[in-house]
Amino acid sequence: MYSISLIQIVGAAFLMFAWSRVFLRYRDDSVSLIGLIFWSLIWIGFLIVLFIPETTEFIAAQFGVGRGVDVFLYAGIVILFYLIYRIYVKLESLEREITQVVREESLRDLPKK
Predict the structure, then answer these.
(1) Any idea what the Cα angle at residue 57 is, between residues 62 and 35, rounded to 5°?
(2) Which residues, including other chains, have CB under 8 Å from residue 67's CB and lie 6 or more apart?
(3) Under a CB-based contact definition with an 8 Å cutoff, are residues 58 and 73 in contact?
(4) Dihedral through CA 37, CA 41, CA 42, CA 46, nearest 10?
(5) What gap in Å lies between CA 49 and CA 76, rounded to an integer?
(6) What is the pLDDT of residues 32-88, one digit of tens each?
(7) What is the pLDDT of residues 4-31, one digit of tens each?
(8) Which backbone phi and psi does 31 adopt, to 5 degrees?
(9) By C-alpha distance, which of 69, 51, 57, 55 is closest to 2?
(10) Other CB atoms within 10 Å distance of the CB of residue 68
(11) How many other β-carbons are positioned within 10 Å of the β-carbon of residue 112?
(12) Per-residue pLDDT, 1
């Protein structure tokens, strides 16, 4: 007989909450369809690992890593660095755009001589 642990209940509740936030952002056009699919797959993956922890051992064996949890830690770190990089690039782009708009507005407000 399979029993559900407290961590599975809390984890599932959090994952459903997180997915609901993504879905609501999709509905108000803050997240694209690709973003919705990406994050849905991430949360579904976490649910699978949460309720079938043996899957991590199988995945670890495919990558040649000793423990299943290590695969997800390594992948999580890589994904986090990539997402930070994307945010950094977007922030730099926004700063350039703001600078350009401010320059154009400043020049437009100068009195014509």
Answers:
(1) 75
(2) 56, 57, 60
(3) no
(4) 150
(5) 14
(6) 999 999 999 999 998 998 898 888 888 888 888 888 888 888 988 999 999 999 999
(7) 899 999 999 999 999 999 999 999 999 9
(8) -125, 135
(9) 51
(10) 19
(11) 3
(12) 61
* Type of residue numbered 74: Y
Tokens standing for residue 32: 């694209």
Output the CA–CA distances (angstroms, integers) from residue 10 to 28, 63, 74, in the order listed.
27, 29, 24
Beta-carbon neighbour count of residue 71 at 10 Å?
Answer: 20
**What distance in Å separates the CA atoms of residue 41 and residue 34, rounded to the nearest whole number?**
11
* Exposure b/e, 31-66, CB count within 10 A at least 16 = b: beeeebeebeeebeebbebbeeeeebeebbeeeebe
- Alpha-carbon distances of 41 from 48, 51, 86, rounded to whole Å: 10, 15, 20
Under 8 Å CB-to-CB from 102, ≥6 apart: which residues? none
Distance, CA of 18 to chain centre? 10
